[in-house]
Amino acid sequence: MLASLLLLVTAAGSGSSGEVDYDHQVDFSKYKTWSWHEGVTHAMNPTIDNRIREAIENGLTARGLSRADSNATLRVAYHASRTKQIEVAPLGTAAPPTGLRYSEKGSLVVEMLDAGSGKVVWRGQAAGVMRYGPNEIAEQIKAAVDKLLEGFPPKP
Length: 156
Fold this sequence. Notes:
- With about 160 residues, the chain is α/β, with parallel strands linked by helices.
- Helix content is about 30%, strand content about 35%.
- It has one domain (about 1-90, about 95-150): Double Stranded RNA Binding Domain.
- It has a 6-stranded mixed beta sheet with strand order 1-6-5-4-2-3.
- Helix 2 runs parallel beside helix 3 (about 135-150).
């Protein structure tokens, strides 16, 4: 749900991590159009799911790719999840009375598949602790997707 979007923030904010990998043999200049791939793991919350889709769509458009409902050269999928974590603070530190901190971590994976071969040619992943609130979530998602896509398309 919201955690899914927040995972994106991890790629762009402190306490976050983001990573990108791609097939170095692929000429990304051949990709001009894209469409959604059916193999998507949606965020549990429809609003967050829409924010993820919007951030990806805007990011790809800003990089010169056009969305096509048919005959796209690139297919885009994403997978979003959230998990709860318990952190144990060392004794004698400024921590809650129990010494335990609960947080939620969101994760997002964005994959781009060559439409002809079906092979994944680019993958970006981000994870991080979520911040709540409609504005914070939208900002986290946009920042994470922007960070993942900042080097897209890869240059030969």
